[in-house]
Write a structure and sequence with these properties.
- The protein is α/β, with parallel strands linked by helices.
- It folds into two domains: 2-123 and 204-311, Malonyl-Coenzyme A Acyl Carrier Protein, domain 2; 129-197, Malonyl-CoA ACP transacylase, ACP-binding (Alpha-Beta Plaits), CATH 3.30.70.250.
- It is built from 14 helices and ten strands.
- A four-stranded parallel beta sheet has the order 2-1-9-10.
- Helix 13 (280-288) links the parallel strand 9 and strand 10 (293-297).
- Helix 2 runs antiparallel to helix 5 and helix 5 packs parallel to helix 6.
- The longest helix is centred in the N-terminal third of the chain and has 21 residues, at 58-78.
Length: 315
């Protein structure tokens, strides 16, 4: 029986996030304050008082969610909760997972994530790219459809395999709009554009890749103290060179989240805790493998419930 700790990516942020947790655990605000010194602006103020529109800006969302995940991880540690057998993070959350696993120093990771956000925001012109969610289609059918529709100037690719029947596609807006129409014709239950201005994990992110790779080299990564299940391979990689290579390719590679959860389940993971704002990953896990017990640690009530459950010997 093993425990996995997972960290959310973009989309789980919200104005006022983690406020009640911060009221009880000083380490939450301390973590945001420390990170703010590294990036040069007040992340806690944005977390509490920023508008939803401001928080959706990729260059803001990425450090915001990264720090949010690390803050809750520090609460988890402060409570004396058990160390996980695996850590993983969805998209941006992979950086949070690697930091929690002591593969990179917090100060360097914050700066790296902030740079990642800026590079990805500037990789394509505003209004050119985006993402869309497709519900109710098989993964292979989505991939085949994208291959059929994608062309120069109209790139559309399957990039987030989130759970059975839920795939996110990414690329040029015109191609995404066309793909949504075609997907519905092919039986998709829903096909909708997402409020995201950046075509994450698609080949359109290549302009960001070289500078980000150089920054990753400079960040001083070491072998993680906790095994990290990485998005692009959906498994634990054996050596540091492979871990770093995967992270460098991460920005243009798909997120195989369904397979990542299945990997952990196949290796005796019976409990999964989501650390950070929101409950997205818990929801996905329930659709991937219902046998895994899940907890979303995003609020004071959630922490208190988990503490009480563990006192009673029930997880």
């Amino acid at each position: 029986m093993k425990l996995a700790a997972v960290f959310p990516g973009q989309g789980s942020q919200s104005p006022g996030m983690l406020a009640d947790l911060a009221s009880q655990y000083k380490v939450v605000v301390d973590t945001f304050t420390e990170a703010s010194e590294y990036v040069g602006y007040d992340l806690w103020d944005i977390a509490q008082n920023g508008t939803a529109e401001q928080q959706r800006q990729t260059e803001i969302t990425q450090p915001l969610m990264f720090v949010g995940g690390l803050a809750v991880w520090r609460v988890w540690q402060e409570l004396g909760m058990p160390a996980p057998s695996y850590v993983a993070g969805h998209s941006l959350g992979e950086y949070t997972a690697l930091t929690a696993a002591q593969a990179v120093e917090f100060s360097k990771a914050v700066k790296l994530v902030a740079l990642r956000g800026k590079l990805m925001a500037s990789a394509v012109e505003p209004g050119v790219g985006g993402m869309a969610a497709l519900l109710g289609m098989d993964d292979d059918d989505v991939v085949a459809m994208c291959n059929e529709l994608s062309a120069e100037g109209a790139v559309v690719q399957a990039v987030n395999f989130n759970s059975p029947g839920q795939v996110v596609i990414s690329g040029h807006l015109n191609a995404l709009e066309n793909a949504c129409v075609v997907a519905k014709d092919k039986g998709a239950r829903k096909a909708m554009l997402l409020p995201v201005s950046v075509p994450n994990h698609s080949s359109l992110m290549q302009p960001a890749q070289a500078e980000l790779a150089a920054a990753i080299d400079d960040a001083g990564f070491v072998v993680p103290a906790i095994p990290v299940v990485q998005n692009a391979e959906a498994r634990v990689l054996d050596d540091l060179d492979a871990i770093i290579a995967s992270l460098k390719n991460h920005v243009t590679n798909p997120v195989y989240w369904t397979d990542s959860v299945r990997f952990m389940a196949s290796n005796n993971t019976t409990e999964l805790v989501e650390l950070g704002p929101g409950k997205v990953l818990v929801g996905l896990c329930k659709r991937i493998d219902k046998s895994i017990v899940t907890h979303a640690i995003e609020s004071l009530a959630a922490v208190e419930k988990l503490i009480e459950a563990r006192k009673e010997g029930v997880s």
